[in-house]
Amino acid sequence: MIEEKLLNLHCTSILAPCIIDFVEQKRALGNKYNAGVEAFNEFDRFCNDKGLTSPSISKEFLTLWEEKRPHENETTQLIRVSYVRELCRHMYNNGYDAPGAFHPAPKKSREFVPYIFTKDELERLFAAADETEPSPASPLRHLVMPVLFRLIYTCGLRVSEAVHLKVADVDLEQGVMTIYGGKGDKDRMVGISDSMLVYMINYRSNPLIKESVSEYFFPCTDGGFYDTSTIYDYFRRYLFAAGIPHRGRGKGPRVHDLRHSFAVHVLNKWAKEGKDIYTCLPILRVYLGHSRITATEKYLQLVPNAYGELTEPFKNRFQKITEALDEEKDL
Predict the structure, then answer these.
(1) Which of 39, 69, 70, 71 has its CB surrounded by the most CB atoms within 10 Å?
(2) Model pTM score
(3) Cβ-contact 3, 32 below 8 angstroms
């Protein structure tokens, strides 16, 4: 049984009472709401930074919060925005001045097509990471990066899950790690391949890593965890060194495409082995931490044309499953 962990609110702004009340209501319904807590802690700091002095969320203030940030993908932006919009509706329903509740929400402009790395590209990318040079300013980075990027790919992790991974969350004897507070507040256990396990054991056995007193599996200089923007910057360096062109902002390759590549490569492997993909897909869903099977199903569209015949039967099957679930919700 995975231990329940609840993140704490650290709110000090004028909106703190509203935020706390809203989160308490969510948790009273049985939702850990950890992702929401992270978003609201950030929003609370934003309110303080902008000098908000009244318990109100105007359309103009909400627009400032919704602005897209550097290195932030569209999906992450919309999720961040959605939590505060829920707060706006909660405030309005409780008599607060919250015109932001009626402000049109930003919409996702298009469906992003992920970049699927070839095996050769992955080898070149990891080789580039292996060439990370030691630095007095960051004495562990040359040890961290080769293992961190391999782990993101071989275990299909989100970059945030990798950088927040703690030593206590990884069982190197059993070859398994526990991901706490993943997307949608989901906890899950993830198996580690034998080859990846060797990398991780050697990494943790390095004297420099062993001497670190950090609780994080991939500690940075101050003992904390790496910021995702730092990981992205190094990823771009490795792409360049590996001769893999970046197609421009918003077009990838992105670090998250390592996770997409893992999923597609697993499906390809199962297809070549003649396995029933319909039966195996829920396994991949649990492994990746998807809330819905339809999110995992999207990877079938990225399987090479040689296996195109596999994807057609799923359309009808999953459509029927989804319709059945919707009918149950209506009952």
Answers:
(1) 39
(2) 0.63
(3) no
